Amino acid sequence: MSFENKVAWITGASSGIGEALAYALHSEGAKLILSSRRENVLQKVKDNCRGDTSDIYILPIDLAKAKSLSAKAQEALDAFGHIDYLFNNGGISQRSKVVNTDMDVTRKVMEINFFGSVALTKAILPSMMDRQTGHIIVTSSVMGKFGTRLRSSYAASKHALHGYFDSLRQEVHKENIHVSLVCPGYVKTDVTKNALEGDGSKHNQMGKGQQHGMTPTKFAQKLLPEIIAKKEEIYIGGKEIWGIYLKRIVPSFFNKILRKMEVT
Fold this sequence. Notes:
Blueprint: E1 7-11, H1 16-27, E2 31-35, H2 39-48, E3 56-58, H3 69-80, E4 85-88, H4 103-131, E5 134-139, H5 152-172, E6 177-184, H6 208-211, H7 216-228, E7 233-236, H8 242-249, H9 251-260
Parallel strand pairs: 1-2, 1-4, 2-3, 4-5, 5-6, 6-7
Helix pairs in contact: 1-7, 3-4, 4-5, 8-9
């Protein structure tokens, strides 16, 4: 693959898919900027990367604080002079019925998942346009293609990403900037443990799908070739991926299936 000496900025890099991407990209020769809220955990990820880690820059950010992200983006650009790949991977999930979900929770999910990714992208985009090259990767979900019970705010945030970044892709095509939306199925991460309940507290339970899901390492291995191929929409997972196609082809039938499924 061709990540040698490329600069990749990864949000949500302290665990799960983001952490796995850090290891995979660095092993392919990429220079990294690692971001999440927890600087001490980012340092551990850096230390776990093999070989010389002098080309890894730690940049703590909070995606919920959109007004701070422009300055953070400038710091990222200053670290290595430019960004080749922006992995908008940071995010948070939700597990609660609509009727029991505080508006503050819905706003927080949207602020982190949607507005955080938008703010970072807008801050980096002019530099990519000046260089006439770049690749923006957005971690969506199968929930970006359909919704299920207990995930209304999460699904809404992921659906919003598709609308926004589909539009952006059309606008920057002539500038040789690529946009990929990644739709993972079940990946064995702490996404359900960290999900917000309706009152804003942590869910603190591992979902059954995540328990039996793909490892983040395997996910990263499958993702990188798709990024090199500049694929616009990427689906990686198990049988749950078929839901994307069923929703598209036989939506009424698929909705009946969803109503009967166990949701955790």
